[in-house]
Write a structure and sequence with these properties.
With about 90 residues, this protein is mainly alpha-helical. The protein is built from 3 helices and 2 strands.
Amino acid sequence: MEAEIVRRIAHLSRIALPESELAQVAGQLDSIFALVAQMQAVPTEGIEPMAHPLDLQQPLRADQLRSETPSREELLASAPRAEDGLFLVPKVIE
């Protein structure tokens, strides 16, 4: 890769790249592009896209209907402030 291309990429990326590092970065970018080309050469026809390479299942608990609903007093007991059966919240709009 040419130094001018690396300089332009650095400029577009807003990366301050000293002239002394242009050759090193060019070599690193060439390695990255070679890896991408190698990955693109792998035949993937007929292979379905996957969200994750491992076939994992998320352990979930079974949904169960609770027969009793907490009372208003039980629900308000955890509130920082309550009055007359209502939650009190800080005023956010003047």
